[in-house]
TrEMBL record:
Protein name: Indole-3-glycerol phosphate synthase
Pfam families: IGPS
Pathway linked to the protein: Amino-acid biosynthesis; L-tryptophan biosynthesis; L-tryptophan from chorismate: step 4/5
Family annotation (SUPFAM superfamilies): Ribulose-phoshate binding barrel (SSF51366)
Coiled coil: 2-29
NCBIfam families membership: PRK00278.1-3 (NF001371), PRK00278.2-4 (NF001377)
Domain Indole-3-glycerol phosphate synthase: 5-252
Length: 263
């Protein structure tokens, strides 16, 4: 059966083929600011939120296609976001690389380039557009390919959010040495979203030096309270924030104290 992830990856192959003909790398390595998601989240005493700019998605259709990414990003930071995620895929999420470039001009928090990366040329483009972190999805590639892209991103001073969904993918993340592991609660094949995916997997991450981010499906303060028990120090939230008419309240609900750091 062809899954949505298969379809997305097929489109990415075409995009990469186009990029290889057209893309000229403009990154001159002059941005030496090193906005580290890892350091910011590891040194915080509350759960931090990567707030996502998400115009549309395969599971929900249009969410806010006409959003102004610059205004949305500024409001996220004002409301207390620890980092911003920009969905840059166009065919399935209606985002653009231009969204990311514009957001970079107005915020100083770390920016995640949320895309489906299968080739180093996409990493070059993310870096040149102002990203600090890229996403690698374990279920999208072989271990050898993931390892190569991981090392390449690191050589470009980018951090990597290494996304897993099950124990096998988590084992790959550990072998590669990923220090930021995203546990996606959304099954990218069925769209089923369950916070217990993080609850089941986080216990197998025993290194205190690994930053755990729980991704997808966060709606309420209770969700945050639940997930903080797993050892996660960050969550990635898209749809709930995109639909919120009170971002300060929505983000405050998620920024619960970390376990062990409560008064
Ligand atoms: O969101 C989808 O429908 C989706 C489908 C296929 C691949 C990826 C998908 N989403 C990417 C994400 O991981 C989420 O945008 C992110 O974790 C935020 O999720 P949410 O807060 O549930 O919008």
């Amino acid at each position: 059966m062809t899954t949505i992830l298969d379809r997305i990856l097929k489109e990415k192959e075409k995009e990469v083929a186009r990029l290889k003909k057209e893309y000229v790398d403009t990154d001159r390595g002059l941005d030496d600011q090193h906005r580290s998601l890892y350091n910011a989240f590891m040194n915080s005493n509350h759960l931090n939120v990567i707030s996502e700019i998400k115009r549309a998605s395969p599971s929900k259709g249009d969410i806010d296609v006409g959003v102004n990414p610059v205004e949305q990003a500024k409001q996220y930071v004002e409301a207390g976001a620890g980092a911003i995620s920009v969905l840059t895929d166009t065919p399935f999420f209606k985002g653009t690389m231009d969204d990311l470039r514009k957001v970079r001009e107005v915020v100083d928090v770390p920016i995640l380039c949320k895309d489906f990366i299968i080739d180093t040329i996409q990493i070059d483009r993310a870096k040149a557009s102002g990203a600090d972190v890229i996403l690698l999805i374990a279920s999208a590639l072989s271990q050898a390919e993931l390892d190569q892209l991981y090392q390449y991103a690191k050589s470009k001073q980018l951090e990597v959010l290494f996304e897993v969904h099950n124990e096998e993918e988590l084992a790959v993340a550990k072998e590669i040495g990923a220090n930021i592991i995203g546990i996606n609660n959304r099954d990218l094949k069925t769209f089923d979203v369950r916070l217990d995916v993080t609850e089941q997997l986080a216990g197998s991450i025993t290194s205190p030096d690994t930053l755990i981010i729980s991704e997808s499906g966060f709606r309420t303060a209770d969700d945050a309270e639940r997930i903080v028990q797993t050892g996660a120090r960050g969550i990635l939230v898209g749809e709930t924030l995109m639909r919120s008419d009170n971002l300060a309240e929505a983000l405050a609900n998620f920024k619960v104290s970390l376990v062990g750091e409560r008064a």
